[in-house]
Amino acid sequence: SYVLTQPPSVSVAPGRTARIPCGGANIQRTTVQWYQQKPGLAPVLLIYYDSDRASKIPDRFSGSNSGNTATLTISRVEAGDEADYYCQVWDRSSDHEVFGGGTKLTVL
Amino acid sequence: QVQLQESGPGLVKPSETLSLTCSVSGVSINSFYWSWIRQAPGKGLQWIGYDSGGIKYNSALNSRVTIFADSSMNQFSLRLTSVTAADTAVYFCARARRRDGYTFFDMWGQGALVTVSA
Q1: A31: contact with B, CB 8 A cutoff
Q2: B62 to chain A: nearest residue by CA?
Q3: Is A57 on the interface with B (CB under 8 A)?
Q4: Could A42 and B44 be called an inter-chain contact, meaning their C-beta atoms sit closer than 8 Å?
Q5: Which chain A residue has the Cα nearest residue B38?
Q6: CB atoms < 10 A from the CB of B100, how many?
Q7: pLDDT of A5-62, one tens digit each?
Q8: Is residue B90 within 8 Å of B108, Cβ to Cβ?
Q9: What are the Cα distances from residue B65, in Å, to A66, A108, B38, B87, B112?
Q10: Of B39, B43, B36, B118, whose CA–CA distance to B80 is shortest?
Q11: Quick one: DSSP state of residue B31?
Q12: What is the reported pLDDT for A73?
């Protein structure tokens, strides 16, 4: 089955740029979605189809997808961005939806 | 405003059946696709299945899971049989948007914690 690999944690200082990678075999051949989840809450869709921002998501959040890695980029990081972030794809071969293991973003 | 709300027992005994319902308001369930996703305590997200014009399930759960809709009540439901402690999780219902097979989940319920324990 298709595997998405995310680093368990990423740390960034306020005001800087955070980049959260999501690795998968030839991931560029599918589309990648990104979700933000804060403790005790449901996930919130941030990015769909690699780089389209969901409704009401600030333009500080952006996505890209190339080769074997998709990346969520958060510019001008704020304390409120501290959360878990998950990538998700549809695996055509298994016809399954697959989530990455999640990355905890810590704002220093 | 579209809202999703999960409901069902919070405690299920091992070997019994887990049943949850997602009540949808603000839109007809006939207009979109709907999914169940779960999250074990401290773990990541796991797709369970969806009704996307045809029912599809995660093969890891395939023989135990059923998803069905009740249009008259604007609800869709999850049944998971023969549960074990490994099925303890927060269960989310979510709206699935699909284009050319590619899916994203743009609306989520708040989640329902189901604990499997005797």
Answers
A1: yes
A2: A96
A3: no
A4: no
A5: A42
A6: 8
A7: 999 999 999 999 999 999 999 999 999 999 999 999 999 999 999 999 999 999 999 9
A8: no
A9: 35, 42, 13, 12, 17
A10: B36
A11: G
A12: 98
Phi, psi of A93, deg, nearest 5? -70, -35
Distance CA B109, CA B118 (A): 27
Q: What residues of chain A lie within 8 A of the CB of B105, using their CB?
A: 33, 35, 43, 45, 88
Nearest CA in chain B to A38: B110
Give every CB contact of residue B97 below 8 A, 6+ residues apart in sequence: A48, B32, B33, B103, B104, B105, B106
**pLDDT above 90: residue B86:** yes
Nearest CA of chain A to the CA of B65: how many Å? 15
Q: Are strands B112-116 and B11-12 parallel, antiparallel or unpaired?
A: parallel
Number of C-beta neighbours around residue B70 at 10 A: 12
**How many Å apart are CA A63 and CA B90, to the nearest integer?**
28
